[in-house]
Write a structure and sequence with these properties.
The structure is a single chain. With about 240 residues, the protein is α/β, with parallel strands linked by helices. It has eleven helices and seven strands.
């Protein structure tokens, strides 16, 4: 809407529509799925994985379908729609609500350059977005960037709590944790250097940082993150099945 798209929304739950309208009063809404589908425009499926296939079965034309349903494959959508047509599978994440999202997309073979450009123009105002060719990687995309914000929030909460445990007032500890994580991520992004290189910049022999890092390694922080991404990836595969 902020980028000038003409958006029409529909949900079977009227309270969800009302919540959307209260946040986005300029959003147009349809009173039924049939009314929505009468508009010959691309369709964005923002539904739960279990609902995506059934919804695809209501599409009787060749319009572009973009699905953000976790784990639901391009073939799932194509095989259930009544008329074969282009499908783009997308995995955004929640920071898109502040324009800092990460969206990864994968297109069916019959997608045109125009279809792909449209999808990019739809997600680009909300952060970074890119296409990948191998759809199998969408599961690990879900496990890393799709679920990743929650891992970061957990780390932020742990930093904040550690500061409070050490005697800092909670508002100050939260502000310090937020700015530390945001600043570190920005340095990594702007410099283009690897996180490992930047770790070396912060550490010095016998210093405070190396002492803290030693504990994180001893407690197997890296292994825990690997397991978290792997578990979320496996859950995405399960949802697809």
């Amino acid at each position: 809407l902020r980028s000038g798209f003409d958006v029409i929304g529909f949900d079977i739950d009227s309270s969800a529509i009302q919540a959307l309208l209260s946040a986005q009063p300029h959003l147009k809404t349809a009173t039924s799925l049939e009314e929505l589908l009468a508009e010959k425009i691309p369709l964005l499926l923002a539904v739960k994985p279990g609902q995506a296939k059934a919804l695809a079965a209501t599409i009787s034309d060749e319009r572009l379908i973009i699905s953000i349903a976790a784990g639901v494959s391009i073939a799932d959508i194509q095989n259930n729609r009544l008329t074969k047509g282009p499908v783009i599978r997308a995995m955004p994440n929640t920071p898109l609500v502040v324009g800092q999202g990460m969206t990864v997309l994968c297109a069916s073979a019959d997608c045109s350059v125009h279809d792909k450009d449209f999808a990019l123009s739809l997600f680009a105002p909300a952060g970074e977005c890119l296409f990948i060719d191998d759809e199998k990687l969408m599961h690990v995309v879900t496990g890393l960037s799709g679920s990743g914000p929650a891992y970061v929030y957990l780390f932020l909460q742990a930093l904040e709590d550690a500061g409070v445990h050490g005697g800092l007032p909670r508002p100050l500890a939260r502000k310090m944790a937020l700015q530390t994580v945001a600043g570190a991520a920005e340095v990594c992004r702007v410099s283009g250097r690897s996180p490992q290189d930047l770790i070396h910049d912060v550490t010095s022999p016998g210093g405070t940082t190396i002492a803290g890092l030693a504990v994180l390694k001893e407690e197997k922080l890296e292994a825990a993150v690997h397991k978290a991404v792997a578990a979320a990836t496996q859950q995405s595969e399960k949802l697809g099945n």
